[in-house]
Specification:
The protein is an alpha+beta fold. The protein contains eight helices and eleven strands. It starts with a strand and ends with a strand.
Length: 229
């Protein structure tokens, strides 16, 4: 038997455990007899799911508060960025809005998240990291897991030095989540509306000679992001 959640298929046991994450009463009459006996999925269970969409749905059902309580994160860095954007009011008038965006970088220990023994011989970056922030328009909190080594490389931080992880900022991490094929130095401006990122190049005839996507640097994010909603 299978359970379908948000058009994604789960096996029966995992589907029941994910449904139980929301608590409350049984959502289906067929589950009434066993609902009280179902043990909700833990984050460690979610991490073992190989399907990305299944993991996304499970984390959404768990919610950030429950997730954070289980993974015991440590705050490494917090950045508050002053921003100015332009919105259109209900009356169709342009309105300039000044606001503050707060980004927080957290570390989650490997042994807590996955129950695995940390690797030996690594120069930091042995654990897991996520950046936490609020949506500009809804004020909802979100979190994105980041590849801390890739963040360091993108921002020219040497990972072969001691304590290099401590040199990484939350704004470097949020910038890293945005990718583009526009070469560095050829971005005129960046406009963001929710998950939609629009990047205007200075010269459309200049292509990325490396032939691939790259992550934005902290400097690009802080200096070239003009509008956000």
């Amino acid at each position: 038997m299978k359970i379908i959640l948000e058009n994604v298929q789960f096996d029966f046991d995992n589907g029941c455990k994910i449904l139980k994450l929301k608590g409350g009463n049984s959502p289906f009459e067929a589950l009434n007899d066993i609902w009280n006996d179902i043990v909700p999925m833990t984050f460690k269970d979610i991490a073992q799911l190989t399907n990305v969409e299944q993991r996304r749905i499970a984390i959404n059902y768990m919610g950030i508060d429950k997730l954070v309580a289980q993974v015991k994160p440590k705050l490494l860095n917090k950045k508050v960025v002053n921003k100015t954007t332009t919105w259109i009011t209900e009356n169709g008038e342009l309105q300039t809005i000044n606001f503050k965006d707060t980004y927080e970088l957290y570390e989650v220990k490997r042994e807590v998240l996955l129950g695995e023994t940390p690797f030996r011989g690594t120069m930091g970056g042995n654990d897991f990291y996520y950046v936490k922030f609020k949506d500009t328009s809804t004020d909802r909190e979100y979190m994105i897991w980041v590849d801390i080594r890739s963040v360091a490389t993108t921002n020219n931080i040497n990972i072969w030095t001691d304590n290099w992880v401590k040199k990484i900022s939350a704004t470097q991490c949020i910038a890293w989540t945005i990718m583009t094929n526009v070469p560095m130095g050829n971005i005129e401006k960046i406009v963001r509306q929710g998950d939609c990122i629009m990047i205007k190049p200075k010269d459309k005839n200049i292509s990325n000679v490396k032939g691939g996507q790259r992550h934005l640097t902290e400097e690009e994010y802080l200096t070239l992001l003009e509008l956000e909603s």
